[in-house]
Amino acid sequence: MSIEIIELSTDLIPPTAELWHAGWHDAHAAIVPDELTELRTLDSFATRLKKYAATTRIAVRDGQVLGLCVVLKDEINQMYVSAQARGTGLAADLIQNGELRIRDAGHETAWLACAVGNDRAARFYEKRGWVNARTETLRFETQDGSYPLEIWRFEKTLN
């Protein structure tokens, strides 16, 4: 069976939260402060997925969640692919899906935040036509309030 990109359903929140939790820790644990890493619990990802379910698309094959993309207005807010799906082209499909949703909502430019030091993600975004516009500090949602983190802001003009 092929991979489908579908809207997140309530029954798939637990495996999607597990994928996001694993992907976030794989990409960020070594490059962000320990304090933020400790706040990124499995439950925190499930809570955020419930909040953003309507704007989350997941990639599924044979009932297994392989990736996710959360769009908030003109932002690709989150994007992760499971370790076993890396290198398959799935990440390109997910980000394109997000870009199309942003464009179809009437935005000419999309943006996303990439943690400073996440070089693998930065290379992927650049290959997909995204430009590292600047470094800035954003406040990220946690169960204890917001947390400041320096990020690379990537932008892409949508056609």
Quickly list its features:
alpha+beta, 35% helix
Task: Give a verbal description of the structure.
With 159 residues, this protein is an alpha+beta fold. It has one domain (4-157): Gcn5-related N-acetyltransferase (GNAT) (Aminopeptidase, 3-Layer(aba) Sandwich), CATH 3.40.630.30. 35% of the residues lie in helices and 36% in strands. It has 5 helices and 7 strands. It has helices at residues 13-28, 34-39, 42-51, 90-104, 119-127; strands at residues 4-7, 56-61, 64-72, 75-81, 109-115, 131-142, 145-157. The protein has a 4-stranded antiparallel beta sheet with strand order 1-2-3-4, with helices on both faces. A 3-stranded antiparallel beta sheet has the order 5-7-6. Helix 1 crosses helix 3. The longest helix is centred in the first third of the chain and has 16 residues, at 13-28. The radius of gyration is 15 Å and the shape is globular.
